[in-house]
Design a protein that fits this description.
- The chain is of the alpha+beta class and about 200 residues long.
- It has a single domain (about 5-185), classed as Quinone Oxidoreductase, Chain A, domain 1 (Alpha-Beta Complex), CATH 3.90.180.10.
- The chain is built from 4 helices and 9 strands, in the order E-E-E-H-E-E-E-H-H-E-E-E-H.
- The strands form 2 sheets. It has a 5-stranded antiparallel β-sheet, with no helix packed on it.
- It is globular, with a radius of gyration of 17 Å.
- The model has no long low-confidence stretch (mean pLDDT about 90).
Length: about 200
């Protein structure tokens, strides 16, 4: 079943994003979920792609701080998420390398290829523009500058439905990165003073 919706597409370096109709040409497969995006943060990394010719494939749908509602699953996604759950999305990982098995998916052996360079090559393409041309659909495993994101379930975390979902996207990168710097790199603890 083809699902058509709006997405912010980056067609070439140095150009602005353009809101266009795109088509998702597949349903969730095993271990995947389809999320209707309620909100997405704008991270410096998303903006940097416009200045880094040759690194990320274009045209592309970016966005890696998404949050939304699970609307479909590819069977049992493996992490307990189900239709109707509210979720925050984060980066992709392979799930089976030494670092992933050691609960350090941010150091996944395939991090760059899965998150920065368009993810996995797919034939036929998952995401196309209105003319049927392939778009890179897996920026940081999500491409959340769109109405829907098809993502590996392992890079989604269920959140309390009472929270304002449209504001939670930055938990998947900005707040996660900041907290990691404070807690891991600076090793700040209770009572420590820190200037941000």
């Amino acid at each position: 079943m083809t699902r058509r919706f709006q997405a912010a597409v980056l067609r070439s370096y140095e150009d602005p994003f353009t809101v266009e109709e795109v088509a998702l040409c597949t349903e969730p497969g095993p271990g995947e979920i389809l999320v209707e995006i309620a909100g997405a943060g704008m991270c410096r990394t998303d903006l940097a792609v416009r200045r880094s010719a040759g690194r990320s494939p274009l045209p592309s749908v970016l966005g890696h701080e998404g949050a939304g509602v699970v609307v479909a699953t590819g069977g049992d996604p493996g992490n307990g998420l189900g239709v109707g759950d509210h979720a925050v999305l984060s980066f992709d990982s392979c799930g089976h390398c030494r670092n992933c098995r050691a609960a350090s998916p941010a150091y996944c052996d395939s991090f760059a290829s899965l998150n920065l360079f368009g993810g996995r090559e797919e034939e036929p393409p998952r995401l196309t523009d209105a003319a049927g041309k392939a778009l890179a659909p897996r920026w940081f495993g999500q491409s959340s500058f769109a109405a829907y994101a098809l993502v590996p379930a392992r890079n989604a975390v269920r959140v309390d439905p009472a929270l304002p979902l449209e504001l939670l996207g930055p938990l998947g990168c900005g707040f996660l990165t900041g907290a990691g710097a404070v807690l891991n790199t600076f090793a700040a603890g209770p009572g420590d003073t820190l200037v941000v």
